[in-house]
Amino acid sequence: MKKVRAGVVGVGYLGQHHARVLSILEHAELIGVYDIDKERASEIAKRYRTKAFNSLEDLLHEVDAMVCAVPTEHHFEIGMQILDASKHLLLEKPVAKTSKEAEELVEMAEKKNVKFQVGHIERFNPATQVALRHVEEPKYIEAQRISVFNPRGIDVDVVLDLMIHDIDLILKFMKKWPIDIKAAGIEVLTDKIDMANARLEFDEGEVVNLTVSRVSMVKKRKMRIFQPYAYIGIDFMRQDISIYRKEPTGEILPYFPPVHRKEPLLLELSSFIESILQDKEPECTGKEGALAVRLAEEITRSIKKRLKLHRG
Questions:
Q1: What is the pLDDT of residue 36?
Q2: Domain 4-119+265-282: which topology?
Q3: Residues 6 or more apart whose Cβ sits within 8 Å of residue 267
Q4: Judging by DSSP bridges, how do beta strands 195-201 and 180-186 pair with one another?
Q5: Structure confidence at residue 309 (pLDDT)
Q6: Mean pLDDT, range 282-286, rounded to an integer
Q7: Which CATH number fits domain 123-261+296-311: 3.30.43.10, 3.40.50.10140, 3.90.226.10, 3.30.360.10?
Q8: For residue 66, what are the contacts with CB-CB under 8 A and spacing of at least 6?
């Protein structure tokens, strides 16, 4: 049985789970991990019966593919190093701090002819995968992504930290770019935007409303989609989907399609490994990741313009 030799760089909160899943995947072999925190790398390597490497360069010599889960500010530098070494790459979201950096990563992946997947994990949420079979002509979408404050991830604002998940899904559902963007946001516990709302309008009158916060006392991950004669509700945390359709008789009937609950990270990494073994395009490409960052930038610009206007 052919296996993809894989490694993980960055084994903090997210990276440790990538290592865990790679250690049990049938078609992957976890060769090792690397982290600037050597003690942490050794701890994770011991836990998942693999090797802690002294340098990223040493690890790259031994693998076919890498998962990069370092802080966002280092995505470009580390991502380029991995791609330049001609290794397949799954890079955590957001793919980079800027769309320019993201596009350069895409260009490098194409130059080296390697697979480049972005870790937009909600793509692999079983509820999302079921919803994709039912979303046809969305006219209005509302999403709420609210989290309890966590110092992890505050190297970027909440748009790149949390809203990026819903931005990616919106681009997937709508299949086109908004013609108008209005957004607002505020700093609360950091010097970056911690709460934000964005209203996106599209060429045929469709509207998307996105709300995110990382300073809540509760955690919520929900999306509501309205399309002709139907409503689709997605609860990403519960991995549930509910659909209400208006029948020709005028009656509105509920439908709860079955969702086979699985760990999204397991599905994401399985898909990445499969794209390598079967030489096919990854489920969430580097180009799609770059588009999500580009839209996040436009939303952030709208927020900053509004803040500047009100603050004089």
A1: 97
A2: Rossmann fold (3.40.50)
A3: 124, 126
A4: antiparallel
A5: 73
A6: 97
A7: 3.30.360.10
A8: 6, 7, 8, 9, 59, 60, 82, 87, 88, 89, 90
